[in-house]
Amino acid sequence: MSAKATLQRRPLVKKILEGADDNLLVIAGLGSPNWDITEAGDRPLNMPLWGGMGAPVGMGLGLALAQPTKRVLVITGDGDMLMSLGSLATVAAQAPDNLAICVLDNEKFGETGNQATHTSPRNNGPTDSGAGTDLSIVAKGCGIADSALVRDQAEVGQLVKDLRSKKGPVFRLVKVMVEKLEFVMPPQDGAHLKDRFRAALLGRA
Amino acid sequence: MSAVDWRQQIFEVFQDHDIKQVYHVPDAGHARLIEACQRSNSIRTVALTTEEEGVAIAAGAWLGGQRSALLMQSSGVGNTINLMGLTKTLRFPLLSLITMRGEVGEFNSWQYPMGQGTQKVLEAMGVLVTSVDKADEVKTTVDYAARSAFNANQPVAVLLRQKLIGIKDFGKKVAQ
Prior knowledge:
The structure holds two protein chains of two kinds. Chain A is of the alpha/beta class. Chain A has eight helices and eight strands, in the order H-E-H-E-H-E-H-H-E-E-E-H-E-H-E-H. In chain A, the strands form two sheets. Chain A has a six-stranded parallel sheet, with helices on both faces. Chain A has a two-stranded antiparallel sheet with strand order 5-6. Chain B has one domain (6-165): Thiamin diphosphate (ThDP)-binding fold, Pyr/PP domains (Rossmann fold). Chain B has seven helices and six strands. The longest helix of chain B is centred in the C-terminal third of the chain and has 15 residues, at 138-152.
């Protein structure tokens, strides 16, 4: 069904987060997106999850509603997104104009050994087939009108602009390569991550 | 209807505690409270597709400095259990109000497993559970729960017992 992905997640995420200031609040899903944003530069206004699969979009929504003047960016993977499709409809219903969601779709469950997710093509063979689920169409069907699929390097400049500043809710599905990458880990303690985030944002933990 | 409008009192407790976001699924027991929140200028209501979304949104709201409350029926509590773990890992406050089904007197046998399991599974995840079955004790119970949540960063659930909200009966509406 689809051409092979060519975009590499780490340089892409670095570009998305380039020049991040106090106006940008970032939530990353467990596994690769966590390591991706951390390689781009650990910062208090990053909330990298080590668990809570299915939570990032909801967390982004609650944060976006609480902080309407800040930009909230959720970066997560296809496996995580597949676990909480309903949250896309909830985001559409609330329509926060400061929320952007970026799903890095490598069509695999990376943390458990690269098993195919449902976003994999159907015809990948007996052990590696998915359903060809297109999450950008799912998001649009849920009511997020500004939803698009990105797969080319030439589109990355626009992608970054859309995620950082376009009127939300914005949903971008980015097809990325399957790669074996180093784990780049942020602090693990959840209460610490939460407290440093609140201290940086609110001046109190 | 009893003399004490406990649903209005819960709404007042929400305002006293500066709750800004309220998450809910459709629920007959919570309907009037949900409507009061929807009419309020100071509260943002969020309709969920499943109860577990509410836990995630509450975590995000707290990261952003806002207090919230999650309204659900006991039938939906099981949906929240995995993400309830976030309240311990992140140590953030979560106030849940749960209308009970599946208690003694329930007509629908399908409601019993989750109704009877509600308190046990919440406690298994470290959630403080308190309950109320008298209208004139609702205000104090919810107020105390909110204090534990927001003053002491605890996950707290208030079970609104079926004796309080009335037993649902096919054909005849009882104590709605």
